[in-house]
Amino acid sequence: MLDPVGRVAMITGASRGIGREVLRRLHGSGWLVSAGIRSAGKLSAGPDLMLHRWDAEAEGSSEAWVAATMARFGRIDAVINAAGINPVARLLDADETAMDRQWQVNTKAPLRVIRAAWPHLVAGGEGRVVNIASLSGKRVANDNLGYAMSKFAVVALTQEVRRLGWEHGIRATALCPGFVATEMTAHAKFPREAMSRPEDVAALVETVLRLPNTASVGELRVNCRFEALL
Q: What is the value of pTM for the model shown?
């Protein structure tokens, strides 16, 4: 297992939900953390925790965040893309506004962060990328086609990161949970007490980040209910 002490992780969506729990988990394990956030909320910066304004929909925001992280810590060892939105975008909806936003936030934003951090991930020889996808990126089970399409694309993005980065020591994982008890699922009909916990998803993120190059997990599906294997 890789020693996390002194390694630098960039986390999108770090002010709430899964991203917040990933921040807590890694920060508590000795990682240096650069949190990409729209607003600090209850987060407080410290010597080993950097908060940086990051806008998933703004061109240039990812590049500026990466540059600031390098200026602060001098290295980048991992990128965890946890930011995401799920407005409803159905197949027969004529208005594609929701789908366009999902594509920007859920798919293009992680691509831009990874692309900006790429040379620094290569430089370390043990770079790690974890993209929080979804079981909706493996099958379509409800009306929100836009969300599923965006998460299918995140799985494809992860596969390309693995392919292109393999010889450079970069290992990437698409983590695909079902229902997780966060703000995003607040209005879901599924019982909240039966959902996966964000802190458990964060524990899985830490596990795959610490695996050596010889034990890469390309995809990890996590479910709180029985579904036939896909």
A: 0.96
What's the burial of 105, exposed, middle or buried (CB within 10 Å: 0-12/13-18/19+)? buried
Candidates 31, 65, 147, 179; catalytic one: 147
Instruction: Name which of 21, 147, 153 is nearest 85 in CA terms.
Output: 147
Query: How far lies 141's CA from each of 105, 131, 167, in Å?
Result: 21, 21, 36
pLDDT at residue 41, rounded to an integer: 75
- Whether 192 is a known active-site residue: answer no
Main-chain phi, psi angles of 8, to 5 degrees: -110, 125
Q: What is the pLDDT of residue 42?
A: 75
Per-residue three-class SS string for the chain = CCCCCCCEEEEECCCCHHHHHHHHHHHHCCCEEEEEECCCCCCCCECCEEEEECCCCCCCHHHHHHHHHHHHHCCCCEEEECCCCCCCCCCCCCCCHHHHHHHHHHHHHHHHHHHHHHHHHHHHCCCEEEEECCHHHCCCCCCCHHHHHHHHHHHHHHHHHHHHHHHHCCEEEEEEECCECCHHHCCCCCCHHHCECHHHHHHHHHHHHHCCCCCCCCEEEECCCCCCCC
Quote the pLDDT of residue 113: 98
Give me the average pLDDT of each 10-residue run along the chain (230 residues): 96 96 97 92 90 96 98 98 97 98 98 98 98 97 97 98 98 98 91 97 98 98 91
* pLDDT, position 51: 97
